């Protein structure tokens, strides 16, 4: 769990959410933008990349995730679950963590988050699987958000080797338009998702610290052009996958409880074997 040390309200909320979900987690101090100079950030990040401007707040967030990957690699674990400190957690997440036999072969990342959007559609492969009444499918298009995901050791090593980072964490993980790793790590999406952002105490808002910055108009235009060109390049590939039936557009949602009585019985039987 990435946790900003001065955000005591968030930490308390996350401790309560984890306890309610029956999950234990290590809290890893986030990179605090208020205590980190821009020069320090730029030693590990670039201010502009293939998705456009990389703001200091997003640099701090990305480096916070890198800290977690380093901590994970220092452990003996085969996979890690990474949270940001403002999430609601499904009561069923614990069942997914108790037995990882569902993990897709060759997959380095599993996104378990729902990004709050009524209009967002994600291109998912039609060769997915079902487990505990949720679908696990290859993620084939950009999906914002990095508040909840599972990562393997090999994937964490490759992500750390991508320094200096030139895009925000969610683009690095889940934007195949501009991130090579968002393709080669073969990310999957869980739907309905097990995690959603929004669990923030009212007295504590965003800590990114860059919302009031206004980008230079020329820089904004360059960024729009970069993103537009990336999307245009991917369009023929996306259309081919849709037409051939290898992919579908899906609206990922969040569900606290998705398991039916029948699937719960099957899961219990499988665990007892």
Explained architecture:
Strands 5-12-7-13-11-10 form a six-stranded mixed β-sheet. Strands 6-14-8 form a three-stranded mixed β-sheet. Strands 1-2 form a two-stranded parallel sheet. It has one domain. The protein is an alpha+beta fold and 273 residues long. The protein contains nine helices and 15 strands. It is globular.
List the helices and strands and how they pair.
Elements: E1 2-3, H1 8-21, E2 28-29, H2 38-42, E3 48-49, E4 52-53, H3 56-74, E5 79-83, E6 87-89, H4 93-98, E7 109-111, E8 113-114, E9 122-125, E10 129-131, E11 134-138, E12 148-152, H5 153-160, H6 169-174, H7 181-184, E13 188-191, E14 195-197, H8 217-243, E15 247-250, H9 261-272
Parallel strand pairs: 1-2, 7-13, 8-14
Antiparallel strand pairs: 3-4, 5-12, 6-14, 7-12, 9-15, 10-11, 11-13
Helix pairs in contact: 3-5
Shape verdict: globular
| Count of separate structural domains | 1
Number of extended strands: 15
How many individual helices?
9
Radius of gyration: 19 Å
Q: Could you spell the SSE succession in H and E letters? A: EHEHEEHEEHEEEEEEHHHEEHEH
Overall pLDDT score: 92
The helicity comes to 25-40%
Tell me the fraction of residues in β-strands, as a range: 15-25%
Distance between the termini: 32 Å
């Amino acid at each position: 769990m990435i946790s900003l040390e001065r955000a005591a309200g968030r930490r308390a909320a996350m401790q309560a959410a984890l306890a309610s979900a029956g999950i234990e987690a290590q809290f890893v101090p986030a990179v605090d933008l208020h205590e980190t100079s821009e020069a320090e950030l730029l030693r590990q990040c670039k201010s502009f990349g293939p998705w456009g401007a990389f703001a200091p707040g997003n640099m701090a967030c990305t480096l916070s995730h890198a800290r977690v990957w380093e901590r994970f690699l220092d452990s003996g674990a085969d996979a890690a679950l990474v949270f940001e400190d403002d999430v609601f957690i499904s009561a069923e997440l614990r069942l997914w963590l108790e037995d990882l036999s569902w993990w897709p072969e060759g997959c380095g990342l599993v996104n378990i988050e729902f990004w709050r959007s009524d209009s967002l559609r994600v291109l998912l492969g039609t060769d997915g699987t079902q487990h505990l009444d949720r679908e696990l499918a290859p993620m084939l298009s950009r999906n914002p958000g990095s508040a909840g995901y599972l990562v393997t050791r090999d994937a964490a090593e490759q992500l750390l080797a991508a320094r200096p980072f030139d895009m925000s964490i969610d683009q690095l993980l889940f934007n195949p338009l501009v991130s090579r790793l968002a393709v080669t790590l073969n990310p999957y999406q869980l739907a309905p998702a097990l995690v959603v952002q929004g669990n923030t105490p009212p007295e504590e808002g965003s800590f990114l610290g860059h919302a009031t910055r206004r980008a230079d108009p020329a820089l904004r235009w360059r960024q729009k052009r970069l993103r537009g060109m990336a999307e245009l390049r991917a369009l023929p590939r996306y259309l081919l996958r849709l037409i051939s039936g290898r992919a579908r557009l899906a609206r990922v949602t969040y569900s606290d409880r998705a398991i039916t009585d029948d699937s719960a019985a099957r899961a219990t039987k499988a665990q007892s074997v």
